[in-house]
């Protein structure tokens, strides 16, 4: 149908139905949602990638590895506990050990016209300056049955002079003495009330196991019940018995002269062990 200008039919032919317009709107909305979802997904993927690879790339130059943060100056490391050191076991029955580097066992220190008793850098020294004189240096305690061991080095004086050890020291003049000399002689001597006598022998004996001259010998003496034993350099020289003295008393180091004065000796590594009767 023509209007007055002759264009009515053309306008009617360009109009669309209402239902067609609604579908156009819905289609536009769907396309917008899809585009928005794509953008959100792409952004999330990019964020995840860069968070796993050290962050966003640097566009100002070549990237550098991050430096480790140093510990504070006051920081300390926690150390694992150290192993507990187990002390070396003391030999069974050892009562005294003395290398004479200290005065711990109380041996006397004395110097006069007759004798010298002193601690030195090389051991405990005993010197006798008068003839026919026996001196001794006692430990400050008493013992029962014991085995006494010591190294004795003669440093000067006549070879006939005596050195050794004493057990069962009771008072000032009752004891057993185990003696050796630089000429290879040995003796076990009993002193009771200042009276001297040999035990288990008529006189001094000679042994090839005693080193001659001003040298070192190792002496071991046992006082176990009534049994008395003397070893020199780990060789048994005599075993005898005597029950004149009580089975307890002091232990001492000894040195003595005969006709000529001047015996001088150094004692080292004294050991006193419990001895079986």
Explained architecture:
This protein is mainly beta. The chain folds into two domains: about 10-50; about 95-275, Jelly Rolls, CATH 2.60.120. The chain is about 15% helix and about 40% strand. It contains two helices and 16 strands. It has helices at about 10-15, 20-50, and strands at about 95-100, 110, 115-120, 125-130, 135-145, 145-155, 160-170, 175-180, 185-190, 195-200, 205, 215-225, 225-230, 235-240, 250-255, 265-275. The strands form two sheets. Strands 1, 2, 3, 4, 6, 12, 13, 14 and 16 form a nine-stranded antiparallel beta sheet that branches. Strands 5, 7, 8, 9, 10, 11 and 15 form a seven-stranded antiparallel beta sheet that branches. It is elongated and about 145 Å long.
């Amino acid at each position: 149908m023509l209007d007055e200008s002759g264009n009515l039919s053309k306008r009617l032919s360009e109009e669309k139905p209402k239902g067609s317009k609604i579908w156009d709107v819905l289609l536009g909305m769907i396309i917008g949602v899809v585009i928005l979802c794509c953008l959100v997904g792409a952004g999330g993927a990019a964020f995840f990638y860069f968070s796993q690879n050290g962050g966003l790339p640097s566009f100002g130059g070549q990237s550098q590895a991050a430096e480790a943060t140093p510990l504070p100056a006051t920081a300390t490391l926690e150390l694992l506990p150290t192993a507990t050191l187990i002390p070396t076991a003391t030999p069974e029955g050892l009562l005294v050990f003395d290398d004479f580097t200290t005065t711990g066992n109380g041996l006397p220190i004395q110097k006069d016209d007759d004798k010298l008793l002193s601690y030195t850098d090389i051991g405990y020294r005993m010197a006798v300056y008068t003839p026919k004189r026996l001196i001794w240096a006692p430990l400050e305690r008493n013992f029962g049955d014991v085995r006494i061991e010591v190294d004795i080095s003669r440093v000067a004086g006549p070879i006939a002079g005596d050195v050794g050890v004493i057990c069962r020291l009771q008072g000032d003049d009752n004891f057993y003495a185990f003696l050796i000399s630089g000429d290879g002689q040995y003796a076990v001597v009993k002193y009771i009330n200042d009276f001297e006598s040999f035990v288990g022998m008529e006189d001094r004996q000679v042994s090839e196991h005693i080193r001659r001259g001003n040298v070192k010998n190792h002496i071991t003496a046992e006082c176990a019940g009534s049994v008395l034993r003397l070893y020199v350099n780990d060789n048994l020289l005599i075993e005898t018995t005597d029950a004149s003295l009580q089975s307890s008393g002091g232990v001492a180091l000894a040195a003595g002269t005969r006709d000529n004065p001047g015996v001088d000796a150094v004692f080292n590594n004294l050991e006193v062990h419990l001895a079986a009767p």
